[in-house]
Amino acid sequence: MRAETRHRLKQDRFSRATIEAAEATAHWTVEHKGKLIIGSVVVIVLAAAILGMLYRLNQQDQEASAKLSQAVRTLDTPIQPEGTPAQPDFPSFISSKERATQAHKQFEQIVTQYPHTHSAGFARYFLGLTSSQLGDNAAAERELKQVASSRNPDLAALAKFALASVYRNSNRNKEAIDIYNQLISKPTRTVAKVTAQLEQAATYQSAQLPLEAKRVYEQVQKENPATEAAQMASAKLQEIK
Fold first, then answer.
1. Exposure string over 72-108, b if 16+ CB within 10 A, otherwise e
2. pTM flag (> 0.90)
3. CA distance 207 to 172
4. Which CATH architecture has domain 150-241?
5. Using CA of residue 167, residue 207, residue 178, residue 164, what is the dihedral sign?
6. Quick one: pLDDT at residue 75?
7. Where do the domains of the chain lie?
8. With contact defined as beta carbons under 8 Å apart, do 121 and 155 qualify?
């Protein structure tokens, strides 16, 4: 009997505790009903906002991608040969400067209108290229440096490669060589090791450092036997001799 009594008392205590907890929960729910409703509305609104933002970003990505393709086509438009009349059915430019100027405006518009899209990074890269083509090395360096810090390793490598060319054209050979060393040590799908090596060797050669150029060309030959790169290196070695 005592055991049964103790068991029943335990059940009663458990029941009371359960009921009290349920009553407390119900009481809290009634008291905070307004807050719960507001909280639910906020969650729904936030979810809708996030979905709307993602939809808008997707739309912007598509629009920016289309405009980027158009701008790249502009940059790839042929130059009209001197003395040749223009042909309405075949777009062309009278000079590379005119073409670079037009493309530059288009890339600039993409960066301004769609700054948070994937295409904006590539547009900024092309901004650097066209700035260099127009002789504005300061702008080219600024744009390419920004892209060089991109989280996209392939895009960053392209920017570094172009930046090295800007430095070479500005007689800043040491800075160019440093960048080529970075690209050689960490090649990507867009800038292969041998590509950076050949440009580095050419930089040494133009800087009147034939021994360094020879060393790199010989390394290219050793690492890439029976390839076009090896043939190019061999031809350059003949020039040095």
1. eebbeeeebeeeeeeeeeeeebeeeeebbeebbebbb
2. no
3. 10
4. Alpha Horseshoe (1.25)
5. positive
6. 87
7. 35-75+92-124, 150-241
8. yes
**Dist CA 17 CA 84 (whole Å):** 97
Q: What's the DSSP call for residue 150?
A: -
Alpha helices in the chain (DSSP H): 2-31, 33-75, 96-113, 118-133, 137-148, 153-169, 173-185, 193-206, 210-223, 228-240
Q: Tell me if 191 sits within 8 A of 199, measured CB to CB.
A: no
Separation between Cα atoms, residue 160 and residue 64, nearest integer Å: 23
At 151, give phi and psi (nearest 5°): -75, -15
The token pair that represents 9 in the structure block = 């008392």
Which stretch of DSSP H or E encloses residue 99? helix 96-113
Q: What is the C-alpha end-to-end distance of the chain, expressed in Å? A: 113
DSSP SS3 for 192: coil
Contacts of 90 (CB under 8 A, 6+ apart): 78
- Provide the residue-wise pLDDT of the chain in tens; the chain has 241 residues: 444 444 444 444 444 444 444 444 444 444 444 444 444 444 444 455 444 454 456 777 788 888 888 988 998 888 887 767 767 767 788 889 999 999 999 999 999 999 888 888 989 999 999 999 999 999 999 999 999 999 999 999 999 999 999 999 999 999 999 999 999 999 999 999 999 999 999 999 999 999 999 999 999 999 999 999 999 999 999 988 6
